[in-house]
Structure formats: C-alpha cells, structure tokens
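Lab manual, section 2.4: Encoding a predicted structure.

Procedure: take the sequence of the chain (274 residues), apply the prediction step described in section 2.3, and record the output as structure tokens. A sample record is shown.
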Amino acid sequence: MNSRFKHLKAIVFDWAGTMVDHGSRAPAIVFQEIFRQNKIVITVDQAREPMGMAKREHISAITKMPSVAAQWQKEFASPCGETEIDDMYEKFLPLQMATLSQHCVLIDGAAKIASQCRERGLVIGSSTGYTRELMTVVSAAAKEQGYEPDCVLCAEDAPRGRPAPYLLFEAAKRMDVFPMWNFVKVDDTPVGIEAGINAGCWTVGISRTGNCVGLSEEELNALSTEERSNVCNRAAERLRAAGAHHVIESVSDIMPILNDFDRKLDSGDLPNRQ
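Recorded output:
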C-alpha cells in the first residue's frame, strides 16, 4: 500500500470523457440535434470544439463559428441572437436529460483510481459543464457503480465556466483545501486544462477516453493500432497546447503522475514554474 501524499491535498475530476461516458458522446449528439431542429447542420467536430464550457456558452460559441453563422444568416436573414441562443438552450436541457441515462457508464478504472486517491489522503472533487439537474442523473448512476466524489460542482455554481478558474476556487472553498498548487485538475478538454492553469493547479489531460478523440470504446477498438495511435496523439497535442503538465490516455493511468507531482512539490517546484 502506498503512503499518503506528502503535499498533494485534492484532485478535481471532470465527468464526461474523464470519469464517465467514454468519448464524451452524450453532449455532442445533443448539440447537433438542437441545431438540426433550426435547419442548421453542424459537424461533430464543430459540436465538440467548445466542449468543457457551460452548455449555454457552448451553444453561443458554436453560433459564432463562421460557417455556422453563415448558415444562420442565410436561413433566417439575420444573425443568431441571445433570444435564439436561449431558445436552443431550453431545448438542449430536456434532450440531454433524455440521453444521459445511456451515457453514464464509468470509464474502466475510474472508480478504483478515485478510491486509491482517497486512500492516499486526497479529497475528491469534480466539476462539469452540466447543470445540477442533469447531474442528478449522472451522479446517481456513478454512485451505483462505485464512484462518489466529495464535491460535485456544476455550471451554475460559478459566475463563469471553464476556462475561468472559478469552479476550482469554489471547490477549494467547499472542500476547505488550499493552496491551489496542492490541487490536481484532470480534464479531457482544452478549456478544462486552461481552467486548471488559470487556477494555479497541476493539470492532467485525458486523451483516449475523452472529447478530443470522441469515440466510444467499441469505435476505438475497431480502429487499427496505427489509427488509434494517431487519434490519441492528436488529442494529446491539443491538451499539451492548452498547457497540460501531463497527458495520459485514461484516468486509470494517473497514479504515477500524481507521485511525480508530489515529488516536484517536495523539491519546491510549483505548477506555474513548469
């Protein structure tokens, strides 16, 4: 049994693509559908690009993409405004709720890693772009599978979502843990990594199971070894470009990285000095 960490105090996991829903598929499907209902076609890559933001901000970001804005202008003879974004957001929530039950399976090793982190003295936090209403479904399903973090923060728990650091500051407050360099933020999106950097945390990007790859376990296994390597490498490059201190394929690979962070803190290294 490994001893308790000497310096690390808390870890904050993202949800979809990091701990549940291999490939973070549930949100992407719904974003495509709400735009389709407005006769606007968006690609899965466009649906995924702002992933990690609060969902209304995510919808707004999609409407500002040049090709999407051009479609909207052609279809409605005016730009997409706040009223239209509000309307799509209202439609998003029930559609997402209807699909969530099919996308709440824990990623292999997630519950075990959370348990190991707790055994070694870490407080377990979590943050998400989902609303609290949506998270009632996800949290309950995760608990049944053996994962229950100490703190669950949702989109409405901060004035702005990722890449702003406020959800992490709120986690520090609710879990009564500081300083921020004793935190680790684990996320599969660039904006999630940026939030960790902005908060002064250590950051770990998740490639294979996350949004930047965007494939279910079955879809990923259907690829050749070379294809799998290529998509994972491209995902890792995006997460490193966002500032990730380390990138791993799955949360199940994280323990050696946590040991490394704890050793660096013992030597006086801090996240913002890397």
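Check your result against the sample. The domain at 26-100 is CATH 1.10.150.240 (DNA polymerase; domain 1).
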